[in-house]
Amino acid sequence: MLTLQFLAPNLAVQLHNFGYSPLNIGFAFGIPAILYATTCPFIYLLTDRFKKRGLILIGFICLTFAMLMIGGTDAIEIFYKNPFFIFLGLCIMGLSTSLCTIPCLPEMLDAIEEDPSFDNRYDEEELENVISGLFVTVQSLGEAIGPMVSSLLVDNYGFRNA
Questions:
Q1: How many CA atoms lie within 13 A of 108 on its CB side?
Q2: What is the pTM of this model?
Q3: pLDDT of 112-126, one tens digit each?
């Protein structure tokens, strides 16, 4: 969530510099959320068939490429000179965010259940409540910190380097 919220204060300015209207900028912000919402059920089905850690790793790798497409880098000039890659990166971001977050909570629960010291001391329902509470808390913290960190980094290093 930190990655998604990182774009919030700065992507609109970047798209405005390319000449996009407020309607197109609003659409750009909706792309990751729509793809996240539509792919979550499918990713949940994948967590039963594949290793959860592998899905999370694939999600982070895809998220890295998505951020390179959105923000660009001086090493890959084609990304930041063509706004098509911003929209493609936002699409990849929506998919990769679901790959990162959906298998994460079940993986955390599986890790706790594998540890016999927790299994003997705590009730299973109590552990699930604590883990899900921590998961949502950290997710919300990322949503709160993302725009602040983003603004600070963009002010000091510019959009592409941040």
A1: 15
A2: 0.78
A3: 877 777 666 777 788
